[in-house]
Amino acid sequence: RNFPLLSWLHSNPFDLPQFQSELISFIQKANPKTIVVLQ
What we know:
Layout: H1 5-9, H2 18-30
């Protein structure tokens, strides 16, 4: 794939479905060093 360079220079805001946001928050509270990868 060809990605524009600009996409690598900044993050774009986005919203997750409510249950996913809550799940990530719950996991982060249990382990603050958690890394979440979205694809």
